[in-house]
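Spend some time on this chain, C-alpha cells included, and walk me through the fold:

. . .
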Amino acid sequence: MTARGATTAAAILIVAALLPLGLSSYQVGLATEVLIFGILAMSIDILAGFAGRTSLGHGAIFGVSTYVVVYMTSQAEMSPWLALLLGIAAATVVAAVFALLAVRTSGVYFLLLTLALGMIIWGVCLRWTQVTGGENGMRGDVRPAILVGQSAFYWAVLACAAVVSYAMWRFVCSPFGLTLRGIRDSESRMRSLGYNVPLHLFIGFSVSGIFAGIAGALYAMFNNFVSPSTVALAQSVEGVLMMIAGGVGTLFGAFVGAAAIIVLENIVSSYTQRWLMVLGITFVLIMIFAPEGIIGKLRAIFSRKAKAP
C-alpha cells in the first residue's frame, strides 16, 4: 500500500470512528449494518472480482454462522466469544463443501450450483424445527455485556471490519491472489502453465467463506435473532448487488455499495411501500451510467482529470 493509500485509509477510519458522536442511536445501527454487510459483499468480491466466479451461496454461508452463534448462546448457553469462533468455523466448513462441489464449474453453471447449494441450506433451516426453530427462527441475547451499547458495538464492528478488510486486501494482492486473477483472465493458460486451478479456486472459495462467516457472526450479535430469511437466496442476491453497485474487483467498493443500498432502503421505505421499485430503478441507472460501479466510476473520472492538460 502506498503512503497516499495508507493516509486515505487512516482518514476514513478516523471519520468512521467519530460517526457515533454525531448520529442518533438508530443511525449508528444503520452504520453498523453497513459495515457487516460490507464485509459480506467483500467476501463475494474475492471470488467474483478476482477469480471470475460469482457465488449465490454466500448468503447461506453467512446465515449458517449466524445460526450457530445464536443457537450456541441461547440453547447451549455458551460464551458469546466461543460461539462466535464456532460460527466462523461452521461457515468455513460449509464453504469448503460448497467449494468441493462447485470449483470445477464456471460461468452460469457455477452461479446456479451455488444457488442450489444455498437453497439446500435454506431448506434445512426451514424444516429442522427442533434445532433452528423453523419459520419462527431463534432469538437469544448474543451480544456480550461489554458491547451492549450501540456505540460500543459499532466501534467493535468497525475495528473488526478494518482488520478483516486489510486481511482481504493482503490476500488478493498476494502471489496467490495474483494466481486467482490469472484464472479469471484465462483459466486454460493457467492450466497450461502448470497451476492446479481447482485447488486454487477451492482455497479461494474457502477463504472467502471464512470472511462471510465473520460477517454472519457479527450479524448474530447485531440482530440477536436468526430465521430462514437469513440464509435465503435474497441474502446472497443483496450481497451481490452491493458488490456490483460498489464496483466488482474494487474490494473496498463493497462498503460503498452496502451503504448505498441499506441507506436507500431505509430512507425510501419510510416514504413509500413501493421502495423495492425505487431501489430497482436506482440499480438499473447504476448499471447504465456506471457499469463499473460507484468506485470504478469515480476512479475513471479522477483518472481523466489527472490526464487532462
In short: The chain has 14 helices and two strands. Residues 246 and 294 are 5 Å apart (CA to CA). The two ends are 28 Å apart (CA to CA).
